[in-house]
Amino acid sequence: MKDFTKNKKYQAALSTGKKLFWKYGLKRVSIEEICKEASVSKMTFYKYFPNKIELAKSILKDIMEQAMGQFEELISSELSFEQKVEQMMHMKMEGTKELSAEFLNDIYANPDNGLLAFMQKYSEQSASIFAEFLKQAQQNDEIRQDVSIDFILYQMNLMTQTVNDKTLLARYDSPGELIMENMRYLFYGMMPQK
């Protein structure tokens, strides 16, 4: 398979697709709109992507792989556990702040398009790394000994499901704000931080 990643037209389609998908979701954006805004012909678009789902997968793959690299780098850093958690929350916020509720809904409400399964593969990989991080923190007495790591991971999984709750999501300016609320609640509870 040919590597197009350095090609300017490929990159234009990728960045334009991301911008439009993040703003309007997948369903509301047409290939014609992407091509027009990216100054790429439809023939060129189809040279790189068979459809907009594959474009979305390419966008998500780039984002997920970059995030995984940053995540692994952070975990192996010399920062304290609390500093690492704060950095993780910041990374999560940065990664989701421009994400539209429509795009998230397109992923979760339409499992047949393959994007949910595609994202779950990366989620499982990061969950495995995160579980090891938590086990190490527990061994170092940085988190409570009486809390099950599986319970923490289960709660984190529930957090991602809240982004699908349209009533709850409507109370926030963006999905990123809801995700951050979830993260803060998981790590700090409802009591004031000391």
How are the secondary structure elements laid out?
Elements: H1 8-24, H2 31-38, H3 42-48, H4 52-75, H5 81-96, H6 101-109, H7 115-139, H8 149-162, H9 166-169, H10 175-188
Commentary on this structure:
- With 194 residues, this protein is mostly helical.
- It is built from ten helices and no strands.
- It has helices at residues 8-24, 31-38, 42-48, 52-75, 81-96, 101-109, 115-139, 149-162, 166-169, 175-188.
- Residues 30-49 bind DNA.
Q: Summed up, what is this model?
A:
The chain has about 190 residues and is mainly alpha-helical.
**Tally of DSSP β-strands:** 0
Task: Please work out how many helical segments DSSP would assign.
Answer: 10
Ends apart, CA distance between termini: 54 Å
Low-pLDDT regions: none
Helix content: over 70%
- The rough form would be described as elongated
Q: Main sheet?
A: none
